[in-house]
């Protein structure tokens, strides 16, 4: 995917630059989800992106299932469409927080590997004080585009919070 | 005007009644009414549904989705939920073909329309009551009182308007009152009720298919609802010599009049039959100054009905009134000289009356194929509804069958005539009357009145109390008052009624003591009441589920004891999760934590995760491999079979402390459960009395179970765990509720997974506890155009970018592509096309449960098949397109109950199937079946 002519370097400066880009990327990503603009959400991904939300229990034991399991952007779009147009669920606010961004490597093809911790706070009308819905870690792979922007080619959300309260209606 | 050709022949519309057509991009409905064709818009103005799928009646069409009603001719909306009129279009017929003007007519009802349409819609239903007795009359009265606005026609054999029967053997017989005094209706009341009373009109038969009764003269009378109040008739006896005398029977006004004359003319009266009617007739004869003899075949009076003490007292009263009793006496023949007994003696009589009971008149019902009882009478439920939901039976002919125990009771009493009619009348008007009453009966005897409350039985023990008048309390085996027979102490009778309702054990000595205040004999503290008195199921029966079944902690505790720890098999895990010796997983049976572990012999053991020393939940990891389990608190250790292996410092230290000499480690292992397996699924039970799993499931359920667990080795793909904020039973109920599938899960309909025309079934096992909700996905080619049109009707233009998720790859020995199986109490086996999983319910009190999902495939799956299962997994689970909606709905239901009090759920769909397997999705018969089983297990 990497079309940049310059040779890829993986040093502290490159990782620091990538980290800043990723933090900006995630801030925008969280905003889209927090605003409920679900149908814009697939646009953060490459066409062949992999997306999975799974428990730490599964991840640590190499079990592949996901609460959400998408093998490409088309499936992400289908999820956005189905949730937005057909799903019944009670009204709620969701707020995503991503911190502790770490770039763990830049591969020779330019793929940036990163992790970031996340928490998801869910507020329901009947639960106005809000509650922690998920706490976990994203394991990400980013591709830099021709215009310099980033897109996710893989995001695996691994949550520590073993018991999902009722339902996870929107992606993380 | 711009008439467009529809290409539909008018004759076709007349034939079909209603037809959908598309003209100029408009979806139109054509209706045939009284030989004329009308066109309206076809999409309901309220929600997305086609009116041509609805029901046409009285010039109106009812939308199939929410019963919005439109006048076909004017388009006028007939009230909630529809407020906006439907467009109407002019129609013309040219050479037999329908043309429609695609310009809608100007505002159908807006400019005034018919003001009347906004008033309550007219009730076009026809209620027919067969039998013009007290029960029939009361049914009409109650239906009207509760708001039934249709027509009521009452058909009676006799020439008299409805009258009450008790006076026939009492004052009317003695000539003290007239028949008019016994009339049920006051003057003008029948007219006020708008009741068409057709007397001397016998009914020949009932045509249930046509919903019509056929009269004796061949006339048919259509009904929407029918009440059978055909009563009972006197049981007749065949006696030698009967042709030489007049044998009197007493059932109706004619009998009473004839018998009254005969009694007055007689000198000596013999009554054959020592029941209440026989005693009343003897009493009447004595009142007229005649000699009276009662002949009873049994050794005492009322032998089948009452315990000995009150019956003997009654015999004593009769004898004090100079009635001769011939007990244990058979009748050999009758003749002008009197009645000759089998012992050869003759009792002189010039008037012979036979009172040996009554037979329910159920012949019409029997011929119409309604369910009747072996001992006679029409079987009805708690609303007095028969096996045909359009037909009710009330009064003497009705046999009330308990929906849970199956016990049957037919009652011949004035009170039952009224109460049963009230229940039926209320149900017909759409306002079911909840509650029964303590049975009550009276008999006027020898100048006094005997009254009975409750249900006396010959085998009850009796306590006699001599207060103002003798009272007999009948007690059951637990010393609770079951009935009371009273000879004139009204206060005692009232107290007895209270004691019967309370159902508390009473002290016999206190009960017998006339100085005891009967109203204070019990402790008033409600907590002392037995659970079945505090939690009384709604009288309407299985049609209702009370909120307390979902919200009460005491009920929940009883469920744990009787269901999860009772005779049930509870799923605990998959064999594939513990392939090696020492492999274990933490699991649950009901709420109780257990460990499932494979031992070195290859067996799988399940035991409680609770140290036998100080109760600590010793196994803390979700899964792992170990050689032993050691409780962290005091290091007690257990082997892989749950045996206590080591107790630190068992012998003490330096000869001090430690266990006593009687301590035997083999007596202190952890609680071990009974374990069974089937094709890789592991079940455990606290009960050694539970039947083998194959019998527990039954043949039909086993077939669906084995389609998933087919013996192939399983590969675990992972788990989901989530907490649902609802009672655990709402989950199995959700999968016994096919009604919700297309209504809640828009996704199913939108993307064509479940559409009209799919083959589907809601299968229930014979016990009512297990079930399979099944459907077969049609391949694209098999979906008819009609059904495709219907699919489009809900959401136009939505398609999946990656439709692979919806692919079904046939791999199962089953006619179904989807099966959702409930294995009572806590397992759901999911086969949603190719995504496979089990869901285990772990209740956490009445208002919350945890669900543990284990998703799996087969060991021989290709990588692509595994990926397909994972992709399809998006449908289910805590974030599944379908799954998340069920979780939300269950939460909403529990919220609804927790934020209100004392309510109940309505589960009445598909009344033709009281409980069990239904062939339609619009049914709640499987939920009713589950609660029938639940109530049996819970003893409630």
UniProtKB/TrEMBL annotation, chain B:
- Annotated Rieske domain ranges read 5-100, 569-684
The protein's matches in SUPFAM superfamilies, at most eight in alphabetical order, are given as: Bet v1-like, FAD/NAD(P)-binding domain, FAD/NAD-linked reductases, dimerisation (C-terminal) domain, ISP domain
PANTHER family in alphabetical order: APOPTOSIS-INDUCING FACTOR 1 (PTHR43557), RIESKE DOMAIN-CONTAINING PROTEIN-RELATED (PTHR43557:SF2)
Read off the InterPro entries from this record.
AhdA1c-like_alpha_C, ARHD_Rieske_2Fe_2S, FAD-oxidoreductase/Apoptosis, FAD/NAD-bd_sf, FAD/NAD-binding_dom, FAD/NAD-linked_Rdtase_dimer_sf, Reductase_C, Rieske_2Fe-2S
On the tree of life, the source organism's domain of life is Bacteria
Q: Does the keyword Membrane apply?
A: no
Keywords on this record? 2Fe-2S, FAD, Flavoprotein, Iron, Iron-sulfur, Metal-binding, Oxidoreductase
Q: Which Gene3D superfamilies match?
A: 3.30.390.30, FAD/NAD(P)-binding domain (3.50.50.60), Naphthalene 1,2-dioxygenase Alpha Subunit, Chain A, domain 1 (3.90.380.10), Rieske [2Fe-2S] iron-sulphur domain (2.102.10.10)
Q: Which cofactor does it need?
A: FAD
Q: Which Pfam families match?
A: Pyr_redox_2, Reductase_C, Rieske, Ring_hydroxyl_A
For this entry, the protein name equals: Rieske 2Fe-2S domain-containing protein
